[in-house]
Structure formats: C-alpha cells, structure tokens
What we know:
This protein is an alpha+beta fold. It has two helices and five strands. It has helices at residues 21-29, 62-65, and strands at residues 11-17, 37-42, 49-53, 56-60, 68-70. A five-stranded antiparallel sheet has the order 4-3-2-1-5. A hairpin with a 2-residue loop joins strand 3 and strand 4.
Amino acid sequence: MGLNEVLDGSKVVITRIDGGRNARKKLMDLGMIPGVPITIIRRAGINPMLLSVMGRQVVLGRGMAEKVFVR
C-alpha cells in the first residue's frame, strides 16, 4: 500500500521506494529506507504529511509520499 493511503497514528514499515534516482535519494536522505518503521503523525487534507522517521519529524509532500510503499 502507498504511504499516502495510511491513516493518522498508523505505524508501518517501508517496503519499497519507487521513482527516479533523485526522488529515491531525497527520500533516503530523509531516512526513508526499506525496513525502517515510520509513524504517521498527520495526513490531513491536501497538506503535506507529517511523519516520524527514526526519531525525527519529517514533512513529506503527497507526490513524494506516493513513491513510498509500506506494510
């Protein structure tokens, strides 16, 4: 399932990152690496998502969130 489909408060694990080399590098620089658990703090409306990744809060736009797949 895509990260943009996950509900607030959910704890998930990244399984795959799609997209081009630059998109994958940007996501990995934010700590979004397959196998890493993340928590969805807020995904309200059309605003960017607020996530907790490796103890840090990360803001991620919807377009980038569509490239991240989780379970």
